Amino acid sequence: MFKAIGLLILLWGLSQFFGSAFAALDSAARESFKTIEMAAIVSQQQLQTQLQN
């Protein structure tokens, strides 16, 4: 009985921890993609400028 309650508490704690960890990972991935997109846009603009000169 006590082991079952302990297991439930452990599972609840892990779900709370991993829930916030996945949210943080999602946010970090989203911001990384935004940075990569901005770098690609700047590179494209620089290439177009060099080709026009």
If you had to describe this structure to a student in words, what would you say it looks like?
The chain has 53 residues and is an all-alpha fold. It has one helix and no strands. It is rod-shaped, with a radius of gyration of 23 Å.
SSE order and pairing:
Layout: H1 2-52
Spans of at least 5 consecutive residues whose pLDDT stays below 50 are none
Structural class: mainly alpha
Largest sheet, described in full?
Answer: none
Helical region count? 1
Query: Beta-strand level of the residues, as a percent range?
Result: under 5%
Mean pLDDT: 89
Please describe the structure with a list of short key phrases separated by commas or semicolons.
single chain, 53 residues, mainly alpha
Condensed summary:
This protein has 53 residues and is mostly helical.
